[in-house]
Amino acid sequence: MEKRMGLKVLRLSAVVVAVAGLLLLHSYARSRALPVVRIGDISPAMNFARVRIEGVLESDARRLRSGSVLYVVDDGTGTLAVFSNDAPDGRLPLAGSPVAVSGNLSVGVGNEVRLRAQAVEVSVDDSIPVAGTKLAEITADRKGERMAVVGRVSKVWAPRAGSNSPYKLVLADESGTLEVVHWLADAPSVAVGDVVEIFGTIGVYKDQVQLKVWEAAQIRALE
Question: I need a labelling partner for 155 at 20 to 30 A (CA). Which of 90, 167, 172, 222 fits?
Answer without folding.
Answer: 90
